[in-house]
């Protein structure tokens, strides 16, 4: 379940406008009333190798708590996630696609996951697609969030979230369900071939630590869910996080870790913090 959840979060890292930044995934936040530095780290939620480098380990050691996009330690996480996966207003996939396309989906999911799509008829299509993530990469799934939490637990420190699971899941109520269904049908019809290529490209670009290239690769996605909804998936959430990051960082030296595409761009977390008067500099 956690692997699927991390994959769901990965959806939120797609799209954004470019803003030239140094090559780094780790950034130090100082100034404007912050007494001790906090750090900002761009993650890839699902990957083949989530090894944390020395700079990240040092930053974790010098901070006193971890903030992820949401609290992955919350005991209510699983139940809240399940509630948030349901489409609103009684919507069903079977009523939004042609009969022959629903049959394609059913055959596809029976082959790939061993279950009928009929059992997922009222779930948000974009989230259903995340159950396929393990099929899209040729390696055991790893997560930077899991690695960060492991270190945090070893340090006997707490894990918190910048938003709730309810808030994250609600994002996909703002993206038209019909668009989500269209993309799910495309995935089934080409047997995930395009998704596999695109996901591999994203992993390669992430490893370059170039936020500008990461955002370019995300922006070039042909998936309508992401290409047409930057404001919903990224910008609005970034802006909501800034006052929280400000308050938290001024109180306690904190390690913040969010999807890498949230960092870059003129409406990314780095530039938004700089506009508020903070010094945000790359750690290389």
Automatic annotation (TrEMBL):
Keyword annotations: Signal
Signal peptide range: 1-18
Superkingdom as given in the UniProt entry: Bacteria
The protein, known as: Polysaccharide biosynthesis protein GumN
Species, as recorded: Flavobacterium beibuense F44-8
């Amino acid at each position: 379940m956690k692997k699927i959840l991390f994959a769901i979060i990965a959806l939120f890292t797609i799209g954004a406008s470019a803003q030239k930044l140094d090559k780094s995934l780790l950034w130090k936040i100082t100034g404007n009333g912050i007494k001790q530095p906090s750090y900002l780290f761009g993650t890839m939620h699902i990957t083949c190798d989530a090894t944390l480098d020395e700079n990240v380990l040092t930053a974790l050691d010098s901070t006193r708590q971890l903030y992820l996009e949401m609290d992955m330690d919350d005991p209510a996480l699983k139940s809240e996630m399940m509630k948030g996966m349901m489409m609103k207003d009684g919507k069903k996939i079977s009523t939004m696609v042609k009969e022959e396309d629903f049959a394609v989906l059913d055959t596809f999911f029976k082959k790939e996951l061993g279950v009928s799509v009929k059992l997922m008829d009222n779930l948000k299509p974009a989230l259903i697609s995340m159950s396929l993530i393990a099929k899209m990469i040729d390696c055991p799934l790893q997560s930077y969030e899991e690695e960060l939490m492991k270190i945090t637990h070893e340090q006997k420190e707490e894990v918190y979230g910048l938003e709730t699971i309810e808030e994250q899941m609600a994002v996909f109520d703002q993206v038209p369900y019909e668009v989500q269904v269209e993309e799910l049908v495309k995935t089934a019809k080409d047997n995930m071939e395009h998704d596999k290529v695109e996901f591999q490209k994203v992993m390669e670009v992430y490893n370059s630590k170039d936020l500008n290239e990461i955002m370019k690769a995300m922006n070039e996605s042909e998936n309508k869910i992401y290409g047409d909804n930057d404001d919903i998936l990224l910008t609005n959430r970034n802006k909501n996080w800034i006052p929280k990051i400000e308050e938290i960082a001024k109180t306690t030296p904190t390690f913040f870790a969010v999807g890498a595409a949230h960092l870059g761009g003129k409406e990314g977390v780095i530039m938004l913090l700089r506009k508020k008067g903070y010094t945000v500099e790359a750690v290389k």
